[in-house]
């Protein structure tokens, strides 16, 4: 269903100011978390006595997964990740944390409980259904989540920018195909919640983003 309004709270976490999102239904004490990043204390404090049903990962770079294990153990909730990056959670070289030791050292978590894939309809919070887009380019397993006019784009599309493509498995061609072939097909008023920086809209990026 796309009929229920969502409450979206953003937390800028860790040395790279990665956006983690707490998504809930207004008035209810339960939700899901998208990309619990490094130094997650502000997020963990906020979820306090909330029931967290799931952790959704747009991709498995270290700055997006730094808080996964703390949140998963605290709330007993499953993790969802695209299979193309299934082993990145256990491999600091693949998730990048081994490459920048000055940012906090190697990050290792348990494997994800569930896989994400293109076209999947992921039901959470009783009857909120996220549509899953496989949007590779920044990384091979990057996905974006859509509910109604809410799009969580990870590091694929930013306000007036796009994700870098010079990391493991990155591809500029795939990134532009993901943006033009999937995300830019969405309505202009679709709100984009990126992995870094402020929110934007599909219409604004289609008209103004210099990288696409």
TrEMBL record:
Its cofactor is Zn(2+). Residues 17-196 form the Metallo-beta-lactamase domain. InterPro entries: MBL_Glyoxalase_II, Metallo-B-lactamas. Keywords: Hydrolase, Metal-binding, Zinc. It comes from Paenibacillus solanacearum. This is Metallo-beta-lactamase domain-containing protein. It comes from the Bacteria. One of its GO terms (molecular function) is hydrolase activity.
């Amino acid at each position: 269903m796309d009929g229920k309004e969502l409450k979206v709270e953003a937390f800028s976490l860790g040395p790279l100011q990665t956006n983690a999102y707490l998504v809930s239904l207004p008035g209810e004490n339960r939700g899901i978390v998208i990309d619990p990043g490094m130094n997650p204390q502000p997020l963990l404090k906020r979820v306090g006595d909330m029931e967290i049903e799931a952790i959704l990962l747009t991709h498995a770079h270290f700055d997006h997964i730094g808080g996964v294990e703390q949140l998963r153990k605290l709330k007993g909730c499953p993790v969802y990740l695209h299979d193309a990056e299934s082993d990145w959670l256990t491999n600091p070289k693949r998730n990048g944390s081994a490459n920048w030791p000055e940012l906090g050292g190697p990050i290792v978590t348990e494997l994800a409980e569930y896989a994400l894939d293109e076209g999947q309809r992921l039901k959470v919070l009783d009857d909120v259904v996220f549509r899953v887009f496989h949007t590779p380019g920044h990384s091979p397993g990057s996905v974006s989540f859509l509910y109604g006019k809410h799009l969580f784009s990870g590091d694929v599309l930013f306000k007036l920018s796009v994700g870098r493509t010079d990391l493991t498995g990155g591809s500029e061609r795939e990134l532009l195909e993901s943006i033009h072939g999937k995300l830019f097909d969405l309505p202009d008023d679709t709100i984009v919640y990126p992995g870094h920086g402020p929110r934007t809209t599909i219409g604004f990026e289609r008209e103004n983003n210099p990288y696409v």
